[in-house]
Amino acid sequence: MEQTKGLSYSDAMKELQGIVSEIEQSSVDVDVLAEKVKRAAFLIKYCKEKLRNADVEVKEALKEIEQIEQETQ
Fold first, then answer.
1. What is the pLDDT averaged over residues 16-43?
2. For the chain, what are the domain ranges?
3. Where residue 3 falls among pLDDT bands split at 50, 70, 90?
4. What is the DSSP string of 7-73?
């Protein structure tokens, strides 16, 4: 199973959507279903972490902008 090397948020979401579609259409063999669900859980966790990290980075950037604005006033 591919971990995260070279995996973008967009790619992870596309893969997750594909897994969900397969499961919804019942096209996943029962023998493969457990692996698909495990991969989906991994992808969800990965995407949540990417979003958390992006949130932190944006908040830090906004703080820096505020500090710059306060210093120039």
1. 90
2. 9-71
3. low
4. --HHHHHHHHHHHHHHHHTT-S-HHHHHHHHHHHHHHHHHHHHHHHHHHHHHHHHHHHHHHHHHHT-
**Which residue has tokens 């495990």?**
38
C-alpha to C-alpha distance for 62 and 41, rounded to whole angstroms:
32
CA distance 27 to 18: 11
Higher pLDDT, residue 73 or 39? 39
37 pLDDT above the threshold of 90: yes
Number of helical (H) and strand (E) elements in the chain, helices listed first: 2, 0
